[in-house]
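User: Can you model how F0G sits in this protein?
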Amino acid sequence: MQTIIEPFRIKSVEPLRWTTRERREELLKAAGYNLFKLRAGDILIDLLTDSGTSAMSTEQWAAMMRGDESYAGSESFYRFEHAVKDLTGFQHVIPTHQGRAAERILFSILCKPGDIVPNNTHFDTTRANIEFNGATAVNLPVPAASDTQARLPFKGNMDVYALERLIENEGVDRIPLVMITITNNSGGGQPVSMANLEAIRRVTAQRGIPLYLDACRFAENAWFIKRDEPGYERLSPREIACKMFSLADGCTFSAKKDAFANIGGFLCTNNPRLAEQETNLLILTEGFPTYGGLAGRDLEAIAVGLEEVLQPEYLEYRIASTAYLGRHIADHGVPIVEPPGGHAIYIDAGRMLSHIPREQYPGQALAVELYRHAGIRSVEIGSVMFGKTAMHELLRLAIPRRVYTQSHIDYLVEAILEVNERRHEIRGFEIESEPEFLRHFSARFRPCPPVMHPA
Ligand code: F0G
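Assistant: Here's the modeled complex, given as structure tokens:
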């Protein structure tokens, strides 16, 4: 059969709630045109994030009933630890309440002021946790990543030459670790090839620098390798994932993505001394080492999710349904980051709304317009989120896992194409008030006055 179907049927449903356009206009005004400030009940289709928004399976819910809530030595921890070790091969597994907790623990031990941490592209919490410890987060994407329209595989790769130059110029002692984000979220959800991972491994191993994976979307990355990298067609996603992990010295992981969990994460290492320091910090703020800020039932959901996410039928459907959205809008003239990534489609809002300068936040303008027009929530990934370091002005449509069906996607396509028809009418925004830190969560915006064209 040619048709790729959702590899599940639905047992429990969550009704959607409609609002009128007038109501959405009022809500937008009250929220200062910041979609993070909307109530979720006022949103029809929520593509703000794929994080923690997955639908869990019957097996996950069943496992949650087996959750052992013992403070110390919980059986759930041992099932979780076994699942993580079996997949990653790492010797020390530290549970955390989500990905950024793992980042905070790792960077507060490894980073000191003056240090540099390279990544293909840092996610915003990764950058913030590095910089909070006085170190500098450096992005080293391959040159192809700067062209959103280039239809090349593995645009998530790191620039290996740039990494070598950086190490030469700054010195090994200033680089406590190198990170690779798979898939590259801030870089358009693009995958990283095994060849790139191996090349980076060679560079870091020669110089004794630990290599870490930011592995949130490891399974989606493994599928792209299977699909697009010669030599991997016949391996299972699990075999490919195991090989990816085997190239690293440790990882941070948000179980809210490729483990179908609503909360959770972990930190792994093969270094026993580091594991001890990390565990001490864990106890200080997250919890005892056999639960790390999670309930036993959460550990169960993660253990099952890590198995399910590697099923080929699931990954084939997942990547195909994201590409379906991407192709249907891109082939009708909406510029997206090409080719479609794993967990999201990124519209190049700077290109689509070329009449709005980047100081007037085209990504934010498009996010507001999509909500106003069709009740869809998305997120700006551009100058609002990253300030001056933003490479592009993007709008991310992140697809929650196993949540929406093809007719929801068709609705999205229709709404986006309608907004694209009227794109010249969309106005930019200016910031009315903003906090110093992570302004995309709480800044208030106001629409810019209409542009006056000379007569
Ligand atoms: N690394 C990457 C690549 C991420 O995408 C995220 C979260 C994190 C780390 C932090 O994990 O949220 O569990 O603390 N990304 C979400 C997103 C929030 O919407 O892309 P967390």
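A couple of observations from the model: The mean pLDDT is 96. The pocket of F0G is lined by residues 49, 51, 98-100, 123, 125-126, 181, 185, 214, 216, 254, 256, 265 (CB under 6 Å).
User: Helpful, thanks.
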